Amino acid sequence: MRLTVYSDYALRMLMYLALKPDQLSTIADIAASYDISENHLMKVAHQLGVGGFVETVRGRGGGLRLGTGCLFLARHRSSLGGATVVSLYLQSRYGMRAGKVQMMIDGTVVLLALFIVPVERVAYSVLAVLVMSGFLWISHRPGRYTAE
Fold first, then answer.
1. Distance between CA 29 and CA 12 in Å, rounded?
2. Which end of the chain is more exposed for a tag (fewer CB within 10 A), N or C?
């Protein structure tokens, strides 16, 4: 999968901020660290701030830090996984449904697994996905998972 430059910068910014979860970082610091344009990072930081992925602090002594959800993951050494971050970003930026993007990525992984893993094991994985999807479908209630 090929990422756009914008997506690449967004992931780099999130990784940089995850390494320093307890302090503010400036766009200049991040740009210098990766040797990339500050102007491009300003646009990325704005979109990540709007999406709630990063918290922006304006003024003297301001900067960026991970948003609350990402901060929780970084502090507890948890992971969203790269595919989830890309899915959420594409949803935020282009309106693509994160669940559908994640499903396409997962489907691609399962198809590629057919070349490496015995077919029976892949079939068990597909069965597990169907069972879990069934539980989610049954228990889903419209409006239950909306942010306010």
1. 12
2. C
Cα gap 10→129, rounded to integer Å: 30
Q: Closest by alpha carbon to 4, among 33, 38, 44?
A: 44
Global pTM reads 0.50
Q: For residue 30, what is the domain's CATH number?
A: 1.10.10.10
Distance CA 59, CA 54 (A): 16
Q: Is residue 86 part of a domain?
A: no
The encoded tokens of residue 6 equal 């914008």
Local confidence pLDDT in tens for the 148 residues of the chain = 577 888 888 888 888 888 887 788 899 999 999 999 899 899 988 888 887 788 888 888 888 887 665 555 555 555 556 777 777 778 888 888 877 887 788 888 888 888 998 999 888 888 887 887 777 677 666 665 554 4
14 contacts 48 by C-beta, under 8 angstroms: yes
CB 69 within 8 Å of CB 52: yes
Q: The domain containing residue 133 runs over which residues?
A: 99-139
Contact 85, 92 (CB under 8 A): no
